[in-house]
From TrEMBL:
Keyword Ligase on entry: no
Location of the ABC transporter domain: 10-241
Taxonomic superkingdom: Bacteria
SMART domains found in the cross-reference section: AAA
Family: Belongs to the ABC transporter superfamily.
Source organism (scientific name): Paracoccus seriniphilus
CDD domains to which the protein is assigned, alphabetical: ABC_NrtD_SsuB_transporters (cd03293)
SUPFAM superfamilies: P-loop containing nucleoside triphosphate hydrolases (SSF52540)
InterPro entries: AAA+_ATPase, ABC_transporter-like_ATP-bd, ABC_transporter-like_CS, ABC_transporter_ATP-bind, P-loop_NTPase
This protein's name: NitT/TauT family transport system ATP-binding protein
GO molecular function: ATP binding; ATP hydrolysis activity
Keywords: ATP-binding, Nucleotide-binding, Transport
Length: 265
């Protein structure tokens, strides 16, 4: 459960984002406020074009809000950096670099010592089950393996906050399911603070501690739904979880909210 008394790890306060001139351009999100507690996994869902990804890029510091502010531990977040690490839908790996080189890239840019780079690399290769692919190139990997590399490249920076923008959207259904279960395991074991954008209601219910439902554009927070931390639900694979009565009820409630917005577009 979220502790209402603690300072949020990440807070988006009254965020409005216009593309183009204010009041004559396109308003992507309007007066959105969202907080994420340390160790919490927050999923954001909504109809296509509702501003989910815009909200994430603003939270990551990659876009400046037209109005509002972003806070980390109650203080202005400032420019993007290793404190907030992003995983995108497109893998964005360097094709001429090996898996190891791709994962270590951010560490090299930050001037981390060679010994520490190697220690963190080995740790992430083990966590993401990539040991045998250390010297492979992206073109030699499946889409799912490439996304494992992209996630490892973010986690190796030891970010305080992980922002994920539909990271499994380009994957086939089987690979997506496996990576959903891997991310669930990673969060359970390492307690990362995560803001996760998705189109999939089922994915949001499976992964999230809370699900934020956004309205059609201009995106606003329509409803926040807290999810139980049931052992069977959160520790089973997704097929087991999907049969849990609370999972079914939450999925039905959230889909009804999203569907209402889609129809009204």
């Amino acid at each position: 459960m979220q502790n209402q008394q603690s300072t949020p790890k990440l807070e988006l306060r009254n965020i409005t984002k216009w593309f183009g001139p204010k009041d004559t351009g396109v308003c992507a999100v309007d007066d959105c406020s969202l907080s994420v507690q340390k160790g919490e996994f927050i999923c954001v869902v909504g109809p296509s074009g509702c501003g989910k990804s815009t909200l994430m890029t603003v939270g990551a510091g990659l876009e400046k809000p037209t109005d509002g502010e972003i806070l980390v531990d109650g203080k202005p977040a400032g420019p993007p950096g290793p404190q907030r690490s992003v995983v995108f839908q497109k893998f964005a790996l360097f094709p001429s670099e090996t898996v190891a080189q791709n994962i270590k890239f951010g560490l090299q840019m930050c001037g981390v010592s060679a010994a520490e780079q190697e220690r963190r690399l080995v740790e992430q290769l083990q966590i993401m089950k990539l040991e045998q692919f250390r010297d492979a190139y992206p073109s030699e990997l499946s889409g799912g393996m490439q996304q494992r590399v992209a996630i490892a490249r973010s986690l190796v920076m030891q970010p305080e906050i992980l922002l994920m923008d539909e990271p499994f959207g380009a994957l086939d259904a089987q690979t997506r399911t496996i990576l959903q279960e891997e991310v669930q395991r990673l969060h359970r074991e390492h307690h990362y603070t995560v803001l996760f954008i998705t189109h999939s209601v089922e994915e949001a219910v499976y992964l999230g501690d809370r699900v934020i439902v956004m309205s059609r554009r201009p995106g606003r927070i329509k409803k926040e739904i807290s999810l139980p931390r049931d052992v069977v639900w959160k520790r089973g694979d997704i097929e087991v979880a999907a049969e849990h009565p609370d999972f079914i009820a939450a999925r039905r409630e959230i889909w009804a909210l999203v569907r209402e917005e889609i129809i009204a577009q």
